[in-house]
Amino acid sequence: MKLKVARIKHVNPSTKAMGYCTRVVTNGRMGFDEIAERASSNTTVHQAEMRMSLEICMETASEMLRQGYIVDLGPLGTLYPSCNSGWAERAEDLRLERLRPSLFYRPARGLQQAVGGASLQWLRGGTEEEE
């Protein structure tokens, strides 16, 4: 796997100084319909049936997350409810009003290995837009 990266102008959040950071330049976006079309190719399943099956699976996964379940999406990874509390020296200092609920994603091992082992190369020209 190869990823192209670009240098972009960016303000340092701590010092407010202008500088640069990098951003991955993707190959575009793969939409739900395109995924269904590709998934149904070389099968006897019609694209519309594949889309409907995928949609039912994603709706069910979404509902399970809303009910507080961990959702394992196989080769994509796992989604689960989480919260961020920050750190406190004493348990009594952790207060519910300071907690921020969130959704956490942990990629599947094979996916993490593929992305983590990707080779990086500069985008031709090396820069992209300002941020």
Structure description:
By secondary structure, the chain is α+β, with helices and mostly antiparallel strands. It has helices spanning about 30-40, 45-65, 110-115, and strands at about 1-10, 20-25, 70, 75-85, 100-105, 120-125. The chain has a three-stranded mixed sheet, with no helix packed on it. It has a three-stranded antiparallel sheet with strand order 3-4-5. α1 crosses α2 (about 45-65). The protein is flat, with a radius of gyration of 21 Å. The two termini are about 25 Å apart.
Keywords:
3-stranded antiparallel beta sheet, alpha+beta, single chain
Short description:
This protein is of the alpha+beta class and 131 residues long. It is built from three helices and six strands. The longest helix has 20 residues.
Secondary structure blueprint with pairings:
Blueprint: E1 2-11, E2 18-25, H1 32-40, H2 47-66, E3 71-72, E4 77-84, E5 100-107, H3 109-116, E6 119-127
Parallel strand pairs: 1-6
Antiparallel strand pairs: 1-2, 3-4, 4-5
Largest sheet: 3 strands, mixed
Mean pLDDT: 91
Number of helices: 3
Based on the structure, what is the oligomeric state of the protein chains? single chain
* Radius of gyration based on Cα positions: 21 Å
Total strands: the figure is 6
For the largest sheet, list the strands in their spatial order: 2-1-6
Percent in helix? 25-40%
Strand content: 25-35%
Low-pLDDT parts are none
* Straight-line distance between termini: 27 Å
Shape: flat
- Which class of secondary structure composition applies to the elements? alpha+beta
Order of helices and strands: EEHHEEEHE
